[in-house]
Amino acid sequence: MNTYGTLFRITTFGESHGPSIGVVVDGCPAGLPVDEVFIQQELARRKPGQSKITTQRKEDDAFKILSGVFEGKTTGMPIALVIENQDQRSKDYSHVENVFRPSHADYTYEAKYGHRDHRGGGRSSARETAARVAAGAIAKLFLRSYGVTIQAFVSQVGDIKAAHYTTLDLSKTEDNIVRCPDATVADKMIELIDAVRLDRDTIGGLVTCVIKNTPVGLGEPVFDKLHAELGKAMLSINAVKGFEYGSGFEGITLRGSEHNDLFYTEEGQVRTKTNFSGGVQGGISNGEDIYFNVAFKPVATIMQDQETVDKDNNPAVVSGKGRHDPCVVPRAVPIVEAMAALVIADFVLRTRTSKL
Amino acid sequence: MNTYGTLFRITTFGESHGPSIGVVVDGCPAGLPVDEVFIQQELARRKPGQSKITTQRKEDDAFKILSGVFEGKTTGMPIALVIENQDQRSKDYSHVENVFRPSHADYTYEAKYGHRDHRGGGRSSARETAARVAAGAIAKLFLRSYGVTIQAFVSQVGDIKAAHYTTLDLSKTEDNIVRCPDATVADKMIELIDAVRLDRDTIGGLVTCVIKNTPVGLGEPVFDKLHAELGKAMLSINAVKGFEYGSGFEGITLRGSEHNDLFYTEEGQVRTKTNFSGGVQGGISNGEDIYFNVAFKPVATIMQDQETVDKDNNPAVVSGKGRHDPCVVPRAVPIVEAMAALVIADFVLRTRTSKL
Amino acid sequence: MNTYGTLFRITTFGESHGPSIGVVVDGCPAGLPVDEVFIQQELARRKPGQSKITTQRKEDDAFKILSGVFEGKTTGMPIALVIENQDQRSKDYSHVENVFRPSHADYTYEAKYGHRDHRGGGRSSARETAARVAAGAIAKLFLRSYGVTIQAFVSQVGDIKAAHYTTLDLSKTEDNIVRCPDATVADKMIELIDAVRLDRDTIGGLVTCVIKNTPVGLGEPVFDKLHAELGKAMLSINAVKGFEYGSGFEGITLRGSEHNDLFYTEEGQVRTKTNFSGGVQGGISNGEDIYFNVAFKPVATIMQDQETVDKDNNPAVVSGKGRHDPCVVPRAVPIVEAMAALVIADFVLRTRTSKL
Amino acid sequence: MNTYGTLFRITTFGESHGPSIGVVVDGCPAGLPVDEVFIQQELARRKPGQSKITTQRKEDDAFKILSGVFEGKTTGMPIALVIENQDQRSKDYSHVENVFRPSHADYTYEAKYGHRDHRGGGRSSARETAARVAAGAIAKLFLRSYGVTIQAFVSQVGDIKAAHYTTLDLSKTEDNIVRCPDATVADKMIELIDAVRLDRDTIGGLVTCVIKNTPVGLGEPVFDKLHAELGKAMLSINAVKGFEYGSGFEGITLRGSEHNDLFYTEEGQVRTKTNFSGGVQGGISNGEDIYFNVAFKPVATIMQDQETVDKDNNPAVVSGKGRHDPCVVPRAVPIVEAMAALVIADFVLRTRTSKL
How is the cofactor bound, as the UniProt entry phrases it (chains A, B, C, D) (predicted)? Predict the structure, then answer.
């Protein structure tokens, strides 16, 4: 459904072309200073129209906090936050009211619910993720007091790949519009996206996320393992097709003698010499960097004619109209960070209960 | 924690070397005939000692149902099912009571809980998955009435890969001990595992799972998307490092015009010409095959000396003793199926509420 | 926390003197016509200033739906509904910023959260219940299709009691401002409330609720029994001190031979001759009327000086200012109905899963 | 369903005449010494056959811990605890296989689930509460470290009432078989129960529960108020018809000026002069005694002929056979305590998250 998290919990609402979208953040501890400028900055990283390689829909994504904050600090009460939709152009969607766009959610929503808001994908639109980013910003503010940092970046567009995160300066992620801190490939990524756009087509990509300074002990086995929750959170983002952490799919071909992370001690802290575990062992954080990859498919809306069917099962042809992203990953970076922040914040709270 | 599922819900318990492990299945609808022979067969597919390429621990995994079944049928009440541990050799673990085995959960459990059962990994042992397989067998029985079938198989060991599932006869999965229906590679996989075992080492692998005949409409966006729950369920299995569905990570390099699944109509049913979507669109099943891959790391226990530290932060050396799998994927096949069955059964129940 | 319900689920937010309050209704099945006039009518039954025996705060309680409704019908997506606060007079509360009002939540919120919105009780204000009434109105619309009716009324004010519900015409509840369908006592109740108000004091009361035409089978033992959920829902309403259903506390003095409800058959339907069970047996509805009583304490805010302490543990004196109800039950009637509707709607959905 | 609690969570299973009943306790913090003698003592207080005024069914209620405890202390893992059924006499129930016993759960279970274990009431039997008592004993052990004490007692049988708890020495509760610490009425209660039993009838009663030394701050408004959860927990116990806390139903007739609990300071601690609030204000504990009453109906099984219907809607006559309690409250005392302990333990854990 539309609620995520156990103790640090969000409920999102809103459709792409309704009056507004929003989120209720419940369970955020009281006493947290709420830096509204920071929340707005996070929303700006996700908002449409921010560069030539994103959709040109214009949304300020100005938000309003309706509850849960008093004199600049959280009260422990639910924080409701609303963002108005401003630049809907619903008539761009009148041609798909009765036609199912390929690889969109049109058909499955119609089949499941029987009645749906078709405009701009309605609830299935990635516009919903703005609410996640706002909530994630609050989670980030909470995690600041623990020293946790969460940094995502674009690590692949099409077949152009960035270097491994350990060789990059992640503070440079925002230095270019594709959000890739590897300067040697960022321009090529941008060129590729631009070329794809001119082809009236779209392309997939990869986002890598790195979480540093997590406390040891986050994760609740056997089902709510840290990486299992991260996986679910990432897979719940629009267009995501895969998740791997640590050695991930490459671990398949390794031997145990290569893959095991040997323990040693550094300044009284247990550490590992390598980190194929991705900072998670037995579903619980071990204090090393948590890192994972999130695969995004090419955006389904392309500016080309495609065969499909309509509600009455008749053949039809549909082509994208309106304003769309040729590649989703540059704007997905803050969304990945937001969901990661929500998962980590939830486990930080849950972990307070593991011992007497 | 140790409960999974919303309406079809399981709670597992038990440690590797305690008196028994078990599961409570809650929410299974009343009136379902419980085929105990089938449950035992499923457990036999997972049990240790079943072939030369698995651990030689001997467990019958005979189960006993304590509740919830009357005159051979479910009553809608919680079904408790217990499996005794028989072949514990706890003294095989006395050497690791105070030493953290590399890439195991020893250190993180110690740090999180402060007090743990170290014998055989305690709760973090894959022995817990027997309870999942038993519960999954009940879910499979429930899904039979819907015609849903769930078939997993080993699709890769080390760098030896099977062909794509659409070209294989999945009914042949149980024809060999590695559970790979691609006869052209199964023997090579077995040889590789055997070679690795003789090297006192371990190797990773991949399990592919295919779900056929699912009703259209399973999945509860925006957070409980069908593939997001499948991902969490798979990532909660021991040793799993990655999950992808449909086109997965390969989708990164594709263009939208290649990747989109065009709709057409067949016998009054909306179908797609290709299935890069993996049977899930917008987080909801569309009636096509659901298929996904689950990456397993090489088993952490190797029969070689490895450097590590002990509880007091002193350097130590540890080597595997006892009986262990050189490669986890042959026995992981029924576990993957079980978790998939539990996810699908839960959504089948949840979907009953989506319309008036 | 601030979410209630399993499948038909609400999340409320907002403080008494913040910009607005609201609710997100998640899980309401798609295809339900949303009668906004009806929702407004329900809110009008709860709103302040509706008669001389309620608080004189003026709130239109005009609501706005932000999501989840398209072309007048639900889409299965979360329904966000916001009500602006208009007539806050926060300065009426400046005298209690640092002083704990007796029998209010001031002290416990301060102790638990450390930082709170003191204005008008903040989140602990009964203003929050407007959001429940709006959500309950949607639940009532859903239950209409099942023929379920939910009718609450004031059955006692101070020591003035109405007759048993089975002897009353519940359609007359709205005929007087105290919402008591027993015309023989309604005027006396109004007089008592008015007299108490002139005494600058407050008085307690009782609300009885009757639910007719519920399907047989609602309730999920052993913990989520129908009456247990009703009890929790009622006890979660501000100022409630007790809940009883069927024979309730009077059942203590009865013998089994008097209290048992004998079964008989009427038009092919199993019925009971008496209804001490209150329509619930073993935690599951049996098709008879469900009825229960909800006890409300006297409102804590009185227009008299009372001894108390301040944040610094110094003695203080506090007196009510602003606009308050001398007796809460007339306005509590729609709140009780709303919570009952939410519980019943949730169980209607949950019950769809009990059989194959 | 069959799971209760958010962080300190239990799942019970088992039927009256199945092989065993049991419970899984999940979320109990690690490091807690498990006093098995104490658990057995608690079970002994609830077990049948303990005195002449209880059922003569003979059950030792010996329990076995299957998991979650290592070297005498909890590990943070799920604690499974099983109790064998020994003295089932299922043939005592063959006469009600197809007949619905009045005011039992036979009819509603049949209608809801379609297939049920009729023997001894199956899952709806109060035998299930043994599992709750065992789990509650673990919760009590956890609460010991906080100094919290939970004491219930029989405060009324039929119309014989004990004095108010504040005038009684609750350590005397176990001094008599009816568990009433008021020596002036305990014998009368026993006589009444015995007389009722000789009449082949049953009688209702009241249990009062007092919780002392709770930390300030327990409870999670607006829905999970402390008293609301206590109410649900109590109402989930078999035969309970009502719940009230603090002033309860008597608060209806009081005025605010009488009912408000004035604050003062004692040794630096905020206290209230009276305690009509029952230790809970705004849904959160304030440090005063928490006290509440739980009303139990007369046991439905009476040794008299009663009219009813059978599965085929034919008229029938049924009379109690087997061994039953003439009054449930003496054995209900430890059950009420157990559920209270589980609620308080859960909130103790939840409260760890309310502030930064």
Answer: Reduced FMN (FMNH(2)).
Cα separation values, A77 from B135, C24, D222, D344, Å: 39, 15, 9, 21
Which regions of chain D are under pLDDT 70? none
Find the helix or strand (DSSP H, E) in which D40 lies: helix D36-46
Q: Is C265 exposed, middle or buried (0-12, 13-18, 19+ CB in 10 A)?
A: middle
**Complex confidence, ipTM:** 0.97
Instruction: Tell me the pLDDT tens digit for each residue of A281-334.
Output: 999 999 999 999 999 999 999 999 999 999 999 999 998 887 789 999 999 999
CA distance D251 to chain C (A): 5
Mutate to test the interface with B, among C3, C142, C353 (most CBs of B within 10 A): C353
- Which residues does chain B have within 8 Å of residue C283's beta carbon, measured at their own beta carbons? none
**What residues pair up with B206 in beta bridges, in sequence order?**
B156, B295
Indicate whether A83 belongs to any domain. yes
Give the ranges where chain B is alpha helix by DSSP (H): 36-46, 106-113, 129-144, 183-198, 226-235, 256-259, 329-351
Strands (E), D107-239: 149-157, 160-161, 205-212
Q: Over the stretch C29-49, which tens digit does the pLDDT of each residue have? A: 999 999 999 999 999 999 998
* CATH code for the domain in which residue C101 is found: 3.60.150.10
Tens-digit pLDDT profile for residues B71-108: 999 999 999 999 999 877 777 788 888 999 999 999 99
∠ CA B20-B92-B21, rounded to 5°: 10
- B260 to A107, A297, B217, B284, D220: CA distances (angstroms): 14, 10, 20, 16, 47
The answer to the question of whether B282 is labelled as a binding residue is: yes
> Given this model, what pLDDT does residue B58 score?
84
Q: Please report whether residue A356 resides in a domain.
A: no
Task: Give the residue from A138, A144, A353 with the most D CB atoms within 10 Å of its CB, the best one to mutate.
Answer: A353
Name the nearest CA neighbour of A117 among A17, A227, A11.
A17
Query: Range of C17's domain?
Result: 3-351
- Contact (Cβ atoms closer than 8 angstroms) between residue B342 and residue B8: yes
Is C356 part of any domain?
no
Amino acid letter for position B160:
I
Domain count, chain C: 1
The HSE-up count of residue C107 (CA atoms within 13 Å, CB side) is 28
In angstroms, what separates the C-alpha of B27 from chain D's closest C-alpha? 7
Q: Is residue B356, in this structure, part of any structural domain at all?
A: no
- B167 labeled part of a ligand binding site: no
| Binding partners of B (≥3 Cβ pairs within 8 A) | A, C, D
